[in-house]
């Protein structure tokens, strides 16, 4: 049986905590979890990091753990109501530049 772990991607104050994301991802990998999961925001709007950028970041910082996106519909990895994503491209925000 595979075990997965949901990565934080909602930041109510709009500030992405890369240390928290990195620490959780690396700890989940060290504990033997098989997958890290994101989700697409399909209802409402919040300061949520869009899944494709977050999955790219997770793939870059981990060695063996799998990554995936949970969606209630097709995982289009795009939500026009995503306020944080609208503020700039995800990889730029993740790079902390």
What does this molecule look like?
The chain has about 100 residues and is α/β, with parallel strands linked by helices. The protein contains 4 helices and 3 strands. The chain has one domain (about 5-95). It has helices spanning about 20-30, 50-60, 85, 90-95, and strands spanning about 5, 35-40, 65-70. It has a 3-stranded parallel β-sheet. α1 links the parallel β1 (about 5) and β2. The longest helix has 13 residues, at about 20-30. The N and C termini lie far apart (about 40 Å). The relative contact order is 0.24. The model has no long low-confidence stretch (mean pLDDT about 75).
Gist?
The protein has 97 residues and is α/β, with parallel strands linked by helices. It is 34% helix and 13% strand.
Unreliable segments (pLDDT under 50, ≥5 consecutive)? none
Number of helices: 4
Distance between the termini: 39 Å
Q: Specify the biggest β-sheet.
A: 3 strands, parallel
| SSE series | EHEHEHH
> What's the helical proportion of residues?
25-40%
What proportion strand?
Answer: 5-15%
What structural class do the secondary elements suggest? Answer: alpha/beta
- Tell how many strands the DSSP assignment holds: 3
Q: If strands are numbered along the chain, what order do they take across the biggest sheet?
A: 1-2-3
Number of domains: 1
Rg, alpha carbons: 13 Å
Global shape: globular
The overall pLDDT, averaged over residues, is 75
């Amino acid at each position: 049986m595979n075990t997965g772990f949901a990565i934080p991607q909602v930041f109510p104050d709009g500030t992405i905590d890369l240390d928290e994301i990195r620490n959780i991802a690396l700890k989940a990998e060290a504990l033997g979890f098989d997958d890290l999961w994101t989700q697409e925001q399909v209802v409402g709007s919040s300061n949520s990091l869009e899944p494709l950028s977050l999955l790219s970041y997770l793939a870059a910082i981990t060695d063996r753990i799998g990554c995936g996106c949970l969606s209630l519909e097709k995982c289009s990895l795009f939500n026009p109501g995503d306020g944080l994503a609208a503020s700039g491209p995800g990889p730029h925000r993740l790079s902390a530049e």
